Amino acid sequence: MQLVKDKFKLWTENDYFDPETRKELLEIEDQKEIEDRFYTDLEFGTGGMRGILGAGTNRMNKYIIRKLTQGLAEIIAEHGEGACLRGVVIAYDSRLYSAEFALETALVLANNGIRAYLFESLRPTPELSFAVRFLKTIAGVNITASHNPKDYNGYKVYWEDGGQLPPRQAQKIINKINEQKSWVVETSAEELARKQGLLLTVGEEIDQAYCEEIKQQLLFPELTRSNGQELKIVYTPLHGTGGRPVHRVLQEVGFTSLYLVPEQEKPDPEFTTVESPNPEDPSAFELALQLAQKQQADIVLATDPDADRLGLYAQDQNGKYRRFTGNQIGVLLLYYLLSQKKKLGRLAVNAVIVKTVASTDLGDAVAASFGVKIVNVLVGFKYIGEQIKDMKDKGWGSYIFGFEESHGYLAGTYARDKDAVQAAALLAEAALYYLKREKKTLPEVLEEIFKSYGYYLDEQVAISLCGKEGRECIIGVMDQLRKEIRSNIAGLAIKSIEDFQIGKRWYLKENKEESLNLPRENAIRFSLEGGGFIMARPSGTEPKIRFYFCIRGDSSQELGATMKKAKEDFFSSIKHLLQT
Known about the structure:
By secondary structure, the chain is an alpha/beta fold. It has 4 domains: 1-37, no CATH class; 40-201, Alpha-D-Glucose-1,6-Bisphosphate, subunit A, domain 3 (Alpha-D-Glucose-1,6-Bisphosphate, Chain A, domain 3), CATH 3.40.120.10; 210-453, Alpha-D-Glucose-1,6-Bisphosphate, Chain A, domain 3; 455-578, 2-Layer Sandwich (TATA-Binding Protein). Strands 16, 17, 18, 19, 20, 21, 22 and 23 form an 8-stranded antiparallel beta sheet that branches. A 6-stranded mixed beta sheet has the order 1-5-4-2-3-6, sandwiched between helices. Helix 4 (62-77) runs parallel beside helix 6 and helix 10 packs across helix 12 (243-253). The longest helix is centred in the middle third of the chain and has 18 residues, at 326-343.
């Protein structure tokens, strides 16, 4: 508690912190609120740093941005003058203070003699990943909180390969931050930074190159040029960065029957038409589905604020709109790419698919049927990006596609992060292909996949546990799951238990252990006999614990009841901890 008092005193009395910050803190009357703002410092997670906007060490604000950027600058400086000249490219989304935080980042870098390339206006996360490679910078920074609610913002760091900062590099920045004895971080004046050539504005040249790379991932450009207008598409950027690039790419390849949701077309930091700008949430599609009904659209697409996640509804043969989960979109794109590349003779003999351990086992089954190697990595698309880099550096495979259950997808290697702009174009092409060449809707294609490989039902339960008490509760839940030894969950036999914190897999029947060749992470997964799993993992970017359920069965009818029983049985031993 003394540490909280000391931090509060510093932030309210030191003239380095501006009057608005000090006023905000001094007006707080609730001691628990003060404790929550200062009991800890925001930390790197799977997506960098993310937090609620506000004053304090446990909030996103310009002082956190400056301190974090100073740590990044010192790491870059250690790579020499050449790295400083290569510089850092900076993008930002439509959230509150995103543009201001991006400029703060640039000015801290400039003060350290590091060149900053700042986008002229908001851009998608995947374009930032592409821009790092295009400009050959040493790093990239994106100011975004992805799909989080409006009171969040965040800071993602990318390294020279265009991938999110790997854990080892992230730890170096954390160490630099911890070494800083003072909160005072100097920034350059904007005019001086520009005069010195340390702050440059970028835009259209990168936009054009990025869009061209996306087009290169499409399989049937002649089909979209000749018949693209026959597919009706409704699209919403959910007030974020996707509006311009998604519209541009779809129109340029031939999808001219494109309807943008007018109420959600323009960037809006308040996200006034949705509770949460998250394409994983069915309620975010309400206005889009209304427009789809009016236009009788074939597919309905939505991207989150930084356009790295994509959601989908598709009209079935009866005219009803069917929601696709993130796993189902991933499997649909996987099947489309593998089956069509094989037909076209373009499927590499050493093809590799990469997905996360929390993503559906159906992906493994589809890949295996095409004789394609599948690699499972920890949760977070940065681990997929790492595999792409490893394949290129060591020459052991040809990356085709990667996906994660949280609506993230990437085909090709022009970027190293999930790309909803590309996924929108690929899904539109797939929908057109199946409509024109096979007379099928996307729901019909998914049903055929289930019939071929087995029915999989995937669901996620996310429980918010805020503050210090919430963090302690999450620790208690994970401890309980590790202590509890069980052979089945609701009658579903457990084949193996993977504890990613200690890097071990334990086969129950054989009573043998093996090492997991993955970085350490606080997560545990119960893999089921015959396919499927149940997994628990605290979020790395939000005060939440997530539970992933993947259940396999022989029919869609039985899966719902099996899923319900599995959830009830699984939560029975930890319910009391989650209610504290």
